[in-house]
Write a structure and sequence with these properties.
The protein is mainly alpha-helical and 233 residues long. The protein is built from ten helices and six strands, in the order αβααββααβααββααα.
């Protein structure tokens, strides 16, 4: 086990993220002793494993008590510890909203992108899907048409904003389409951002651009789903 722990720790440090399908990652997610040893190794150097069950990847990030000692000296820390500028961060949140919000709805409802709308009586019991099965892509041309006038101009958004987000692993650009990158869902906290976006100003901006976000949070049950005590049925 020692060699496997060292190997996984080194790979996480070298690559920053790994797919959940990786054999050593899968072991870390199901083997408590293995995970405890991994957490100890990472914690010794101020890191922690970030695992979102809805994300297709896991990643390493600074432990919470290390944020201020590592990033506190920089002016940009209050907005982004990845060194993103305000316009890069704004575009990142827009892309996250357009990709992850609908993706999470599909995951919670056990739907696929190719779902033909027919009711699957066993769908709710199926395994949680990741990746291309539930994560849609955005047309780069449409994104530029909707948001480039606000963020600058087409060349600037393509060369300075999208390229930086791709370099950091938040998105992937292929054949004129923008796909979810390995870090988009795992590093941006859905529970923190979703309500602010759905019920905030950005929700209105997205709706005006023709991309209305979901009506409600997929994790919040309808009143009909609650019993007399207010608990989920």
């Amino acid at each position: 086990m020692e060699h496997q722990i060292r190997t996984l720790t080194a790979r996480l440090l070298a690559h920053r993220s790994l797919p959940r399908s990786d054999p050593l990652v899968r072991r870390a997610l199901v083997d408590d002793a293995f995970r405890s040893d991994l957490d100890t190794r990472l914690g010794a150097v101020g890191l922690s494993l970030i695992d979102n069950p809805y994300a297709a990847h896991v990643a390493v990030a600074l432990a919470e008590d290390m944020h201020e000692p590592v990033f506190g000296g920089g002016r940009e820390y209050a907005a982004s510890n990845a060194g993103l500028t305000r316009d890069q961060l704004a575009l990142l949140v827009v892309i996250w909203s357009l990709i992850v919000l609908p993706k999470r709805e599909r995951q919670v409802n056990r739907q696929r992108l190719t779902d033909d709308g027919q009711e699957d009586m066993f769908g709710k019991e199926g395994p949680l899907a990741h990746g291309g099965e539930v994560s849609g892509a955005l047309s780069e041309a449409s994104l530029l048409a909707d948001f480039a006038p606000v963020l600058g101009h087409k060349t600037y958004v393509q060369g300075k904003l999208l390229s930086r987000l791709a370099q950091l692993g938040f998105i992937e650009r292929r054949n004129g389409m923008i796909h979810e990158g390995p870090l988009l869902d795992v590093l941006l906290d859905y529970r923190t951002l979703a309500d602010r976006i759905i019920h905030g100003t950005l929700g209105e901006v997205l709706a005006q651009a023709g991309h209305p976000p979901p009506v409600r949070d997929a994790f919040t049950p309808d009143d009909d789903d609650l019993d007399d005590t207010g608990e989920d049925r």
